[in-house]
Amino acid sequence: MKNRVAVTGIGIVSPIGIGIDNFWKATISGESGAGEITLFDACNYATKIAAEVKNFNPADFMLPEVYRKTDRFAQFGVAAAKMAIEESRLEGAYDLQQNRIPVIIGSGLGGSLFHEEQIFQLIGTQEPKKVLSSSVPRITPNAVSAFIAMQYKFRGTNLTISTACSSAGNAIALAAQQIENGKTDIVITGGVECPITPFTYAAYQSLRVLSKGLQGAKKASRPFDKKRDGFVLGEGAGILVLENYEKACSRKAIIHAELKGYGSNCGAFHMAAPDPSGADAAAVMREAIMHAGISTVEIDYINAHGTATQANDVCEAKAINMVFEEGGKKPFVSSTKSQIGHTIGGAGAIGAIAAILAVKNDIIPPNINCDELDDQCNINVVQEKALHARTINAISNSFGFGSNNTALVFGKAEY
Amino acid sequence: MNVKGVTIMTDSLQRKEILQRLEKIFSNLLRSMQEKDLKKRPIISFDTDIAKDLSIDSVETLDLLNSIEEEFEVSPDLHVANTKRKVGQIVDYIIELQEQK
Fold it and tell me: What predicted TM-score, i.e. pTM, was given to this entire model?
């Protein structure tokens, strides 16, 4: 019999707030984190908006010898991990340094800020000798999981999962397996991304997936809305402490939610486009619900992938209807990306945190900017304002490039 | 005495000038200009221990060597350079290399 998995710590760095309280308050107030790009000079770009994290000072979370050696993405991860670990109050309850605690983090791009800076310098100077040797450890995607481990001497499995926008979903699912199988009692997991950099932003712009923001930055991210025109690129990190449920209960930990089930699959369809049938997205939701040991009618809320691209939202809505029409119940749906943009490798973790807090607080976050629901997205979108509703179980969807899909099911903690 | 005094002053000026150029290198390597709190920016003096005070590790030592090579047009030896922990020692090693040219 598999061990149950509890969420006992949450840390978050997001465009609408740093820390669980700030994030949740802004989420249920329907705030938007989008604005004009300040992280680089975007004057030559056709699109000039992004959802940036404001007022992040790495010195608040780590020592100079850590933030001087790390890219912004690793700093976000280390900061969110610190918040999650402190919030979980693991220290004192466990001998953390004697536990082989795994750290499993999702990141699609790694240290793209530093990477690009060094490449631009090389192209500009044509002097390879000027490229810093320390680029290698700064750029590598597993810098984030490695630095989290080094901060706390966590000597268990240490992985960074890179499956584009589902990176964090896969990381959390794999982390949960470690507890289910009895390999560990604690795992640090989540996702992180800082893609608001000159090259990466240009690449997404060329891919024509970014919103032009013609109605203003805060109105730009409009998942499931008739007038949606793409996503707003965002940045952030979400880190969870997962813990053996029974052990968390016995130490009287605050359990935010139970991670009941997960699904992970590949539609094997296309590198960038979702399967228009929605079959793979439906399959991954069914897999997660089955793994959770519940039925579709027991799902109250779906934190959708909801990017606000034409293709994603139609396919996801179709998949949701395929899964939930069977039970005759239409769960509430909202996309956190309406507020914080698309944080790529961090999206699955931040969406999961919104789902966890929805289950914990019986409040469904709003899907802002969905003023007129697209006819092709005939699902139960929570438009405009947060909704107070009994929420026992929630699903968090993440669909990544390469037809890479994950779904996580969170349930209300029992005391 | 006068001659010796002048020599000492010249040495001191040369060391200070090298220190100032090294400060710029450290500033770039440590990305210290990103630190909003000026008090938290590292202070570079002849007495600064690059490992203990600046947390420069083995990988960053290579960046430091490459930068010194370019800035001062000298060819430091990796093994010798690795024995220099204090900024003052590095300054003296640069002077030594310059004199060998």
Answer: 0.92
